């Protein structure tokens, strides 16, 4: 029975044992490109939230941008001039491109747009706004008063010694603006202020509301209490023994009198052979970049089909085609209510879909063929799709898929997936045998007399060449003036690709042939069947 229940539903059932209003939270520090490894967190949270809602729970879903965290270093993608900003909250560091309000928004903006495209719509919180609005003030007071108790928990759980001058609150220096170089020297609970000294030589007083932030290991449990978080996915680094979830559990219970959220620990997404994605190491493909290549529902499927505790191997090259094929097969089975589709697979599909996501009827691989036959011309793409009997009413979704394919072909497609339709008969047809040329001539004659031919019909027609009595077999016999010898089907497909592409292989023949106007095929096959190479003087 366990195999028939999706992991998101298992988590939802566990969470609902606690009868209360539920809040699913997720959050990332926008300190660099937010990559598809991070996407696992938000898609996991979204799947659990949807499972809770499906079970009738009273639940909300939020995303917290940790934009009050400091800039840790000058990352490889930044100019050296950013050295002066290291230690400042990233919401107060200049935008790298100059078009956004600050450094954090530069990375947050495309990420939030990517969430919208993925059909994920949490309520967005920004940490700097929450601190300035005083949401954390009571938690800061409690942490300052109970500093010694927190230090004891950190030492007991992490096994590390806490410095004598350590404090759970990092004031923001009024002079240099940094929060990593200050030390608390005192505080006033009534006035809600904190005194500090900074390494830059400045001393001063800041308000608890917006004048600094709690250190990460205290900020996280304080947030659970402040917002009432009951479920939160996080990476395995936070879940390690003595890690931030272990210290957070005790701090939230013993210091803030609140229960920790239900933990959903997830593994990393591994990028091809390069290993786990990480902004700091540069092994990264941003979510925005990936959405330029992969349809959003396929990215959701990539994460939803795998239990959070198992790592995901992701390769945007050839393996992407296999992933897309799997998803499209599942979509067709679901749509046709295929009785062989199990409860588990149905649930994977339901959670992979999302409101507002384009669901194109055209398979990704077919669009790879169509796009290249049309040479990227969108009007020609629409004409080919219409000819194949698929509705072109939703141009927005067709364009999205065409754009995905265009990017994929340029950035990740293996050489075998690319082709170029030759404007004239390729010289390579000179290598074709008499049988191959007779086949092309006969094929042209047969398709000329027919109406619209579907991809499947083209495919079956080629296979009919070996059947005695078939129209194509008769035509080949007539051209050769002798019964058709033993036919190797591969040679016939090779003749087709050679005459159009100048190469011996190509995309799936049915889709490929149905992408062309019939008149073009008839003309090209006839020219190829009678081709005589020019003699060089």
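Sequence proposed for the structure above (537 residues):
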């Amino acid at each position: 029975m366990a195999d028939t229940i999706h992991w998101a539903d298992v988590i939802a059932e566990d969470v609902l044992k606690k009868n209360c209003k539920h809040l699913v939270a997720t959050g990332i520090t926008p300190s660099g490109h937010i990559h598809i490894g991070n996407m696992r967190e938000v898609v996991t949270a979204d799947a659990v939230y949807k499972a809770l809602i499906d079970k009738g729970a009273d639940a909300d879903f939020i995303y917290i941008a940790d934009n009050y965290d400091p800039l840790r270093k000058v990352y490889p993608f930044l100019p050296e001039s950013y050295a002066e900003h290291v230690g400042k909250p990233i919401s107060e560091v200049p935008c790298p491109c100059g078009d956004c309000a600050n450094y954090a928004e530069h990375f947050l903006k495309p990420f939030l747009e990517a969430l919208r495209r993925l059909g994920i719509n949490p309520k967005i919180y920004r940490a700097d706004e929450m601190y300035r609005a005083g949401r954390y003030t009571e938690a800061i007071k409690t942490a300052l008063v109970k500093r010694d108790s927190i230090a004891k928990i950190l030492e007991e759980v992490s096994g590390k010694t806490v410095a004598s001058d350590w404090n759970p609150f990092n004031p923001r220096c009024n002079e240099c603006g940094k929060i990593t170089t200050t030390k608390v020297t005192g505080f006033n609970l009534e006035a809600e202020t904190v005194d500090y000294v900074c390494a830059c030589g400045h001393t001063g007083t800041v308000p608890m509301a917006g004048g600094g932030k709690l250190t990460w290991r205290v900020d996280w449990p304080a947030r659970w209490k402040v917002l009432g978080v009951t479920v939160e996915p996080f990476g395995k680094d936070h879940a390690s023994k003595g890690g931030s979830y272990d210290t957070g559990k005790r701090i939230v219970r013993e210091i803030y009198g609140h229960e920790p959220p239900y933990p959903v620990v997830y593994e990393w997404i591994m990028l091809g052979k390069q290993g786990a994605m990480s902004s700091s190491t540069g092994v990264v493909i941003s979510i925005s970049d990936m959405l330029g290549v992969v349809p959003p529902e396929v990215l959701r499927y990539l994460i939803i089909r795998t239990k959070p505790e198992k790592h995901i191997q992701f390769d945007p090259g050839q393996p992407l085609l296999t992933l897309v094929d799997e998803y499209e097969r599942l979509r067709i089975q679901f749509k046709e209510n295929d009785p062989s589709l199990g409860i588990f697979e149905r649930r994977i599909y339901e959670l992979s879909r999302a409101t507002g996501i384009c669901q194109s009827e055209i398979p990704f691989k077919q669009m790879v063929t169509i796009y290249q036959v049309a040479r990227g011309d969108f009007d020609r793409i629409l004409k080919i799709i219409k000819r194949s009997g698929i509705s072109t009413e939703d141009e927005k979704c067709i364009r999205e898929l065409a754009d995905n394919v265009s990017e994929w072909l340029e950035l990740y497609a293996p050489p075998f997936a690319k082709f170029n339709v030759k404007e004239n008969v390729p010289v390579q047809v000179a290598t074709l045998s008499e049988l191959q040329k007779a086949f092309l001539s006969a094929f042209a004659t047969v398709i000329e007399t027919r109406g619209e031919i579907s991809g499947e019909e083209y495919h079956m027609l080629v296979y009919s060449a070996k059947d005695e009595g078939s129209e194509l077999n008769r035509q080949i016999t007539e051209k050769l003036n002798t019964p058709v010898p033993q036919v190797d089907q591969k040679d016939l497909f090779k003749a087709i690709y050679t005459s159009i592409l100048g190469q011996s292989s190509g995309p799936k023949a049915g889709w490929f042939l149905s992408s062309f106007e019939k008149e073009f095929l008839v003309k090209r096959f006839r020219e190829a069947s009678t081709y005589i190479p020019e003699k060089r003087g």
